[in-house]
C-alpha cells in the first residue's frame, strides 16, 4: 500500500486532495443553501427517540420548513431548548398570542403522557415560536437517519469511515 502511495505523482495527489475538498465544500454549500431556502438553521434532522411514535420512528429523517409565522395545533415542530444541544421533535398541543408579537406554543410527544414543560428551560412554560422553533416537519424518509444515530452512539465509527474515505481518495486512479 505504501508503494502505491509513493507511486502517486505530486500532481495526481494534489488533484485527488482537491477533489475531496470539492466534495466537502459542495456538501457544505448545499447545506447552507438549503438553510437559507427553508429559513432553518437545521433543515434536516433525525428522530433520536420514540417519543413521537407512531407518527415517526427512531431513525426517521425529517425535512423542515420555517417560513410560516405561526404554528397550528397538531403541527409537528422541531425546537431547541436553552442549555440542550439536541433538537426535540414534538407536536403543538396549544398556541396563543398572549398580546405578544410572537406566538407562544405548548408541545407534547405523541407517545408521552405529559406535555413538554419539563423539557423547556427552567421557569419556561411555553416556547417562543420565533426564537426556539427551528422548523415545522414537511416530509420524512423512514429509517435513513440510523447512520447518524450509529455514528453518534459509536464515535469510533466516524474515525473508521473518515479513514476509509481518505484512503479511497488517495488510492483512486483516474
UniProtKB/TrEMBL annotation:
CDD domains: Peptidase_S24_S26. It is a single-pass type II membrane protein. PROSITE patterns: SPASE_I_1. The keyword Endoplasmic reticulum applies. It catalyses: Cleavage of hydrophobic, N-terminal signal or leader sequences from secreted and periplasmic proteins. Pfam families: Peptidase_S24 (PF00717). Its EC number is 3.4.21.89. This is Signal peptidase complex catalytic subunit SEC11. It comes from Ascobolus immersus RN42.
Amino acid at each position: 500500500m505504501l508503494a502505491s502511495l509513493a507511486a502517486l505523482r505530486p500532481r495526481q495527489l494534489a488533484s485527488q486532495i482537491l477533489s475531496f475538498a470539492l466534495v466537502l465544500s459542495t456538501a457544505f454549500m448545499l447545506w447552507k443553501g438549503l438553510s437559507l431556502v427553508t429559513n432553518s438553521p437545521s433543515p434536516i434532522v433525525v428522530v433520536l427517540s420514540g417519543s413521537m411514535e407512531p407518527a415517526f420512528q427512531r431513525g426517521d429523517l425529517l425535512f423542515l420548513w420555517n417560513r410560516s409565522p405561526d404554528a397550528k395545533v397538531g403541527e409537528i415542530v422541531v425546537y431547541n431548548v436553552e442549555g440542550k444541544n439536541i433538537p426535540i421533535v414534538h407536536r403543538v398541543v396549544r398556541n396563543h398570542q398572549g398580546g405578544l408579537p410572537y406566538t407562544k406554543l405548548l408541545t407534547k410527544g405523541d407517545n408521552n403522557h405529559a406535555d413538554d414543560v419539563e423539557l423547556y428551560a427552567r421557569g419556561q412554560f411555553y416556547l417562543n415560536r420565533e426564537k426556539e422553533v427551528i422548523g415545522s416537519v414537511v416530509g420524512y424518509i423512514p429509517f435513513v437517519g440510523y447512520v447518524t444515530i450509529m455514528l453518534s452512539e459509536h464515535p469510533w465509527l466516524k474515525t473508521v469511515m473518515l479513514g476509509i474515505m481518505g484512503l479511497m481518495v488517495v488510492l483512486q486512479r483516474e
